Amino acid sequence: MTEGPVGPSLIRLAVPMIFGLVSIMLFNLVDTFYISLIGARELVAISFTFPVTFTLMSFSFGIGIGAAALFHVLSVKEISTESSD
Hints:
Elements: H1 6-38, H2 40-84
Helix pairs in contact: 1-2
């Protein structure tokens, strides 16, 4: 992963996240359709909370990816320290 062109590696890592975000947005679209069948007030309530929930989900995705990267870096440092002893 540290060798070779950056573009294909970046795309390979970004595709699962893009798929996850698109699936969440499709879920919310279908959810909005079914809630619109119930009534306008219910649709307003769900539409009002969508930006907040999407922001929180995106933030949690970022924290999860950052924590995984940090864990990987720390584990590699630990392995390299053990192998140099």
